[in-house]
Design goal:
Layout lengths: L1 H24 L3 H41 L27 H21 L10 E11 L4 E9 L8 E9 L6 E8 L26 E2 L2 E2 L13 H6 L3 E6 L15 H4 L1 H4 L8 H16 L5 E11 L1 H12 L5 E5 L17 H7 L22 H6 L6 E6 L7 H10 L1 H6 L21 E6 L7 H14 L9
Parallel strand pairs: 4-7, 4-8, 8-9, 9-10, 10-11
Antiparallel strand pairs: 1-2, 2-3, 3-7, 5-6
Bound molecules: alpha-D-glucopyranuronic acid (GCU).
Alpha-D-glucopyranuronic acid binds next to helix 9.
Length: 474
């Protein structure tokens, strides 16, 4: 950008200088006009070539600059000492589950609010829901599809989010559910034509998101990440909403998201929290709705999230204990991975690429993660005693799989206070050999994604912890 501006500026200055020179020295005739034309053309060509060269040099410099900070060598991670999750800021040492609940939990949450994610406000009194449509014969009769608008304030034209639910038909009683935000609008999770196309701003995608709007071609764009039928057949409902309903995911997104539109009602300035906080807030509003949805068991709501949405899911579950089970899939830096480990993405890199995600205070730790009063194992400990599944992928080095594993490992002392067995493994398990009980972990083959293997493990984990007896109708 800068180099193009420079080239343009160079052209204008060169044009004026050449014009003046030629007009003064060759005052008349065709020759002077021709000379002016040729010389200007030559200069313009040079400026364009120069700008291209400059852009290339700048991009190489910036890439190598980023490379300097990114370490993928386990030998170079160095040693780090993690904050003791049972020692509170006033030096009290937590020794019982009750003490954790009454003192440890609130003190730890406060540290994360102050230094990492910012505030997380409560719901507003005027919040209400509107069922847009309901189809009892969706997906060939397998499910009831419901589309519900959650209005965050009293008015019917105030800020809102669109929630999509698939509830299994052939199961008696209130059912367990998996809840998670999606990246490209509700229509992206399944080709089902009955899903309303999102009308919000969405990141462009060659598969149907054009000029930041969803088109018909985006139906099912992320279906591989949402095995809807498999969930339904196992007796789970699936509940999802587009994360951009809360805040569009770009650095100016806060201006049209809830951090601005609800600023007065929530009595919270936009820089007192970040996009991750806004997404987490939306997850709790979905939970508010689920508490009123008769076909869903609100005591068996599992929260899942992949990557940046995994960061938001962990933050939501840390605050909101109504989420009975939590899955963090490759949430990486600012999610499950330890911040003090210099491997893959770092706080500095995260804040540089996504300045809108966290509280402004988090940027103070860009160059000094060791000064952060918390580390991410404490975020995982805030989920205790609820079942927690952390998953990584072998090729997803950016998210630091080892750092995700260690974080789960170091969260254990809080689970132990509740007599829960955590990982029970001292070392990273082999690929696709999950370990652990109340905290479970796996690393699978392949890239950064949420895949069938991940879901199979997460579903089995939820079935076990929810002690599901699926009561299918004949
Ligand atoms: C980027 C970002 C990660 C994030 C990921 C994602 O890679 O650096 O922190 O988790 O996007 O959301 O897919």
């Amino acid at each position: 950008m800068f180099s193009y501006w420079l080239a343009d500026y160079g052209c204008i200055v060169a044009d004026q200088t050449i014009n003046n020179y030629l007009i003064e020295n060759f005052p008349s005739g065709k020759l002077s006009r021709y000379l002016i034309y040729m010389i200007k053309k030559y200069f313009r060509m040079c400026a364009v070539l120069f700008s291209g060269l400059l852009a290339w040099v700048l991009s190489v410099l910036s890439a190598s600059g980023q490379g300097i900070n990114i370490n993928y060598d386990e030998e170079k991670v160095g040693s780090h000492s993690l904050p003791d999750l049972l020692r509170l800021p006033d030096s009290t040492v937590v020794t019982t589950a009750e003490q954790w609940t009454s003192q440890g939990r609130p003190a730890t949450l406060q540290l994360f609010k102050t230094h990492v994610y910012g505030e997380l406000p409560d719901k507003l009194p005027g919040m209400h829901f509107k069922v847009r449509n309901e189809n009892k014969n969706a997906l060939g009769g397998l499910a009831t599809r419901k589309q519900v608008t959650i209005y965050f304030t009293q008015g019917a034209d105030g800020p809102s989010m669109e929630v999509l639910l698939y509830i299994p038909n052939k199961v008696n009683g209130p059912v367990p559910a998996f809840v998670g935000l999606n990246f490209y609008g509700n229509q992206s999770i399944h080709p089902d034509k009955g899903i309303a196309l999102s009308t919000r701003w969405i990141n462009n995608s060659p598969e149907g998101i054009v000029n930041n709007k969803a088109t018909e071609a985006s139906r099912g764009l992320q279906a591989s990440r949402w095995p809807v039928e498999e969930l339904l057949k196992k007796g789970f409902a699936l509940v999802t909403a587009y994360y951009g309903d809360l805040e569009p995911d770009h650095s100016e997104g806060w201006q049209s998201g809830i951090r601005t539109s609800l600023k007065t009602e929530l009595n919270l300035e936009e820089d007192k929290w970040g996009a991750i906080g806004a997404w987490a807030w939306g997850l709790s509003r979905i939970m508010d709705y689920l508490e009123k949805e008769k076909r869903i068991n609100p005591k068996q709501v599992a929260l899942t999230g992949h990557s940046r949405i995994g960061k938001a899911a962990l933050w939501a579950a840390a605050n909101d204990t109504r989420f009975a089970l939590v899955v963090s899939n490759e949430s990486g830096e600012g999610g499950a991975a330890l911040a003090r480990r210099n491997y893959g993405e770092t706080i500095a890199q995260l804040n540089r690429s996504f300045p809108h995600w966290f509280s402004p205070a988090y940027k103070n730790y860009n160059q000094q993660p060791e000064k952060l009063p918390v580390d991410q194992h404490q975020l995982l400990a805030l989920i205790a005693p609820r079942p927690l599944y952390v998953s990584s992928a072998i090729e997803d080095k950016w998210a630091d799989p080892q750092g995700e594993f260690l974080s789960a490992f170091y969260a254990e002392p809080v689970y132990k206070l509740f007599n829960k067995k955590g990982l029970g493994a001292l070392e990273m398990p082999a690929v696709e050999k999950p370990v652990g009980e109340t905290i479970r972990y796996h690393i699978r083959n392949g890239k950064h994604d949420i895949m069938a293997y991940d879901w199979q493990q997460h579903l089995a984990f939820a079935q076990k912890h929810f002690k599901l007896k699926i009561n299918a109708k004949p």
